Amino acid sequence: MCSTKLICPSLPNIPWQDRPAGCAAPLWRYQENPIIGRNPLSGVARIFNSAVMPYEGAFIGVFRGEQTNGIPYIYLGRSRDGVHWTFGREKIHFVDQNGGPAMPVYAYDPRLVKVEDAYYVIWCQDFYGASIGVAETRDFRTFTRIENPFVPFNRNAVLFPRKINGMYTMLSRPSDSGHTPFGDIFLSQSPDMEFWGRHRHVMGKSGNWWENLKIGGGAAPIETDKGWLLFYHGVTGTCNGYVYSIGGAILDINEPSRVLHRCNTFLLTPEEWYEERGFVPNVCFPCATLQDADTGRIAVYYGCADSCVGLAFTTADDVVDYILSHDETSEADREIGKR
Ligand code: BMA
């Protein structure tokens, strides 16, 4: 057994349920899942693949809301307990750096990460094809878009919660514009959140069948004394379509394109009705975590079947111990990823 320290603030009000008796899995589901049901607000058919953060003693989040015309946008949500959410009726209105309107054509799979004093929303949008959108907010009233960080095609951008070696650091998954049948996680750095470079390969699909098609970043990496703990998604293809599971890896703290440990099994895979059945069946898609330094508790927010939001729990010790005891890295994982 290991004893892993989370390097993050205390969060005594983190949503939590103890591991059910007899459960040996590295992640266990909240018993009241899904936490957000269908038709959560007028004009929105489904909320899923969404990200949350602690804010002013409660919780705030950015939510992928699939409108009734099928087009996804991002909605702001607030919660006292991290479980029951209320949403703004209007989608988030983004402005450009001059304050003029700058709504994306569509916006999906948002992540929300605080670096120093600013909150960043990162999502997938149309920029002549699927690409990454970024906006900064300091008050959750004004959301100012920053120029698109990358050329198309790209998705699943996830920002690290602090600068590394003085640079903002982002994971992303270059791809194509469709239901991409390939994809590795890369890392890029920026001095200012606008100009990105020093691109490195982090990790690709593995020989393990649950993630043998493609992978993509999930929640913002969690800083621990063992390295950056990353929850990501791994995809396999079946005769009836893709299956998305949650995987786990630990990245080097100063050189995070090096994978130190990678779990050769999924941490959570579609099993419950709300994961197996929905708009797109068999999808568990992590986008955020909450964590508490004092107890090591971690709450994982994940999209279920492109239809609703689920919550699962683990502790730093449980999940790191599980990853270390199922550790399988390749040479491409371990190298710095610069060729
Ligand atoms: C991916 C993304 C996700 C979605 C998943 C399964 O390509 O578009 O938003 O959850 O497919 O449909």
Annotation keywords:
binds beta-D-mannopyranose, five-stranded antiparallel beta sheet, five-stranded mixed beta sheet, mainly beta, globular, 339 residues, 3 helices
Number of strand elements: 22
In this entry the ligands are: beta-D-mannopyranose
Strands ordered across the widest β-sheet: 6-10-9-8-7
Helical content band = under 10%
Q: Based on CA inertia axes, which overall geometry fits? A: globular
Report the order of strands and helices: EEEEEEEEEEEEEEEEEEEHEEEHH
What does the average pLDDT come to? 97
Structural class by SSE content: mainly beta
- Note the gap between the termini: 37 Å
Summarize the biggest pleated sheet. Answer: 5 strands, mixed
Beta content comes to 35-45%
Low-confidence stretches: none
Q: Report Rg.
A: 18 Å
User: How large is the count of helical segments?
Assistant: 3
